[in-house]
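Hi there,

I know you've been waiting on this one. I reran it after we fixed the sequence typo, so this is the corrected version. Both the input and the resulting structure follow.
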Amino acid sequence: MYNRPKGTKDIIPAEVGKWQYVENVERDILASANFQEIRTPVFEHTELFLRSVGETTDIVNKEMYTFTDKGGRSLTLRPEGTAGIVRAFIENGLDNEVLPLKLFMFTSCFRYERPQAGRLREHHQCSIEAFGSASAKMDVEVIASIKRIFDALHFSNYQLHINSIGCKHCRQNYIQALHEYYKDKLPNMCEDCKQRYEKNPLRLLDCKNETCQAYKQQAPKTIDYLCDNCKQHFQELQEYLTLAGVPYVVNPNIVRGLDYYNRTVFEFLAKENGAMGTICGGGRYDGLIESMGGKSIPSVGAGIGFERLLGLLEKENIVLSTNTHVDVYVACMQKEYEKEVMSFVYFLRQKGVRVEYDFMQRSLKAELKYANKIGAKYLIVYGENEATTKNFVVKEMATGKEIQAPQEQLIKILK
């Protein structure tokens, strides 16, 4: 017997309806704000992630699923959604379209890390990206859309935390301050942080090691080193969030784990087992497109984790309307009418009715039990009278109520 690989999960039919419900909510909310769906390959050239995500990040150093194909090319299963969408944006000339362009994508992402609740080696996200505007209004467009998704799912156990990590100019002063602060603490820190200190000091604030995290509390704050333009942008972000009715907390410890972010970074955090865990995170990445060979186009994006969100909805006892029932089960009273039943079933399906019928040579009594087991809303028993008169008795399974109707009126009843 074969088992699924560690860190993966089968989404069986009983669970798929919940996933589809959340996907549909996200699709509807985003479409209402003129976000358009895009789909990109599940693997990309490895250099794409080295350049965009950053060679000093844990994702690149420890977590990517990278392989060499038969042509000797290094390819990587996508660890996150933004890099592939940006690559597609440039390669397909979408930067020549009227901006802003707002996109979203349902993605499976792959990271080799210790599997835990809501964080698998293959996990799923809704990636949300907006290209073309440097205004904090566009940051709020993404953030407020995420809040609307949570509202539509009746989920409220979260806080929005925001920060600004500045631009490439004012960040240099901040990095100098980090170097000075961590200099005498470095001998007591993990090996990864010793490398981060030299290569990318901002990552020191993202370390999950308990000893390193303790130092973070007294570390210099990014918002104390912002230039005038970044200060104004962050102030506008807060004003626009208030105008949009989005509550927030300023959290200067948020830096996010990817190198491409600048200015706005944010996380939606949910309280779970006494701690706050991230269910959605993102930020602004104004220089990413240009660094990948495209034009200088400001951008902002985020990713919502499906597994984390579904797990939290379940813990909050939020019931999702999965709508996976069968509209009607057509039972065959006598075996000589099997062909008529099949023809009738396909007629109903062509009209948009969800129909099931027998494939297992069950008795009529067993068919009726099966119809109840699969949650059929209605039952039609097809026999000699139905074949001759095309007049049908429709039984509502929940109440036992029966309605008699000719075939031309059935569709209205069953749908």
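Quick highlight: Residues 13-32 form the longest helix (20 residues).

Best,
R. S.
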